[in-house]
Amino acid sequence: MVSENQQQEFELLTDDDDWSDSPKAGKKNSLWNTNAVVVKSNDLLTAKTNLTLNELRIILVAISKIDSMNPEVRGDASYWVSAKELREIGSERSKAYKYLQNAVNTLYNRSVIRTFGSNGKERDEFRWISKVSYRSGMIGLTFSQEVLPFLTRIRSNFIRYPIKQISELKSVSTLRFFELCVRWRGQVKKMTITELKDILNIPQKKLNGDVARIVRECAAKINEATKIDFHVECEFVRTGRKFTHIIFSVKNRPNILVERTQSVPPEDVPDVRDLVGYTDEDWQNLTLSDSQRNYFASLLSRHNDGGVGNRFAGEFINAAGREGYSQESWKRWIENRLADPKFVYEARVYLHDLGFKPLSAVKKNVKKTTN
């Protein structure tokens, strides 16, 4: 429940209140339909949040009513969500009004947490909502000033998807994984189990094997959905006996007659390399030339750049031991390892991110054994 010191940020409107600045239910419903789109900054995708499934649906319907390209969006505007709209994107028909009423008591206290730094201990935390209103089966949300920059005046570094594509997704984890897939569609992405726990709202106490199972189920639900315009393939990577990473690739689904999802990169990224079209077999048994090993080892060894080199070091630098203590020895270790086709296969996501193409390397002949 909302405490007394928060009361000024909260409105519970009744039939007797002056509602002149708020849209009537009938008018608002006529302005929204399931062709609406959600547009949000990529920086918001990896933030931690504690929203329930129906709270997340309410937030997304409200976001779909924002003109993200309009520089004149009012910071104090309320975006109204009805039970009918919730039902249209998957909420249970008989409980939609209850979900709205519950959200009046909970959404004000929901927050966004963004972490920074190599150890993830630096953080910003802020509210999703600065004001919540309720009247006649509708809830009105005013987004906080901290959240609005991730939802308005967006020109780059964002995702865009038709809200009707989420109507068959029935869990927070699946919906958040869907948004990650939109972000990385046409590419291959490698993430740690720890990263995915935070993004998918999976409790930290869950074992890594449980997280792998949840991600597998999320991918299956996305692939089964008839309104989603892509499909996702996952590979689960072990370090020793423990699952540590998940690699997923997102590819277009042909012959789906729906508006496409879209991922727009940051303005300082010249292009997003299309990873679709390469098979697992393309990456096997590759022999890099000396110049290729030297060039990509130089790029991968830049573990302080906050980019590909940083992510690569997060997975492999412990394996280098003392050789990883200096920049030159770390580069030398990488260059030596890239002579092994098995390591090239292990590092394929990072190599791809740096522009390496499998067809540029020589295939090593592997003799097939017969029984």
TrEMBL record:
Which Pfam family, any one, appears in the UniProt record?
Answer: Rep3_N
Gene Ontology biological process terms in this record: DNA replication initiation
GO molecular function term, any single one: DNA-directed DNA polymerase activity
> Initiator Rep protein WH1 domain: which residues?
38-181
InterPro entries (UniProt xref): Initiator_Rep_WH1, WH-like_DNA-bd_sf, WH_DNA-bd_sf
Which family does this protein fall into? Belongs to the initiator RepB protein family.
Please give the name of this protein.
Answer: Initiator RepB protein
User: Which species does this protein come from?
Assistant: Parasutterella excrementihominis YIT 11859
